[in-house]
Design goal:
By secondary structure, this protein is an alpha/beta fold. The protein is 23% helix and 33% strand. It has helices spanning 15-25, 65-72, 93-105, and strands at residues 7-12, 33-34, 49-53, 59-64, 85-89, 109-117, 121-127, 133-139.
Length: 142
């Protein structure tokens, strides 16, 4: 296996709301919701997904929590919450503040306001409307 991640999929409860949060609120580029012609049934997940190609080619996908659980063959409660955090690197303290302000204005929740950590970062946390945890980080020794 190559040490490279190509895609991250976030399970969401409302695909349109999440698309608005990431595209309209945070400014990530997306063609919108695609795959709507693939409709969920009792055994097959639906195909509706919103995708964002980030710098470096990483794809961030938003997929219905129900469809992701069905696709993976697991209980829906296994794709709820945020057992990890994802991060944005900012170029300044002001950049961290801006990311958090953008997230809050878009409907996210500030989980922890930014502050200087003893290990040399200025960082704060927010969560998206589905509770996925994100950290905005600036390395002080840049």
């Amino acid at each position: 296996m190559k040490a490279h991640i190509n895609a991250i999929t976030l399970a969401v409860s409302d695909l349109e709301r999440s698309l608005r949060f990431y595209r309209d609120g945070l400014g990530l580029s997306s063609p919108g919701i695609v795959g709507t012609e693939f409709v969920r049934d009792e055994r097959t997940p639906g195909g509706s997904v919103a995708m964002f190609t980030l710098d470096g080619g990483l794809i961030l996908s938003l997929y219905s929590r129900t469809d992701l659980a069905l696709d993976a063959g697991i209980a829906p409660e296994r794709v709820a919450g945020s057992p990890i955090s994802l991060g944005f690197f900012a170029e300044s303290r002001e950049g961290v503040d801006h990311i958090l302000e953008q997230a809050e204005q878009a409907g996210g929740t500030i989980v922890r306001p930014p502050l200087v950590r003893p290990w040399g970062i200025y960082a704060g946390y927010f969560s998206d409307p589905d509770g996925h945890l994100w950290e905005a980080i600036y390395f002080l020794n840049n």
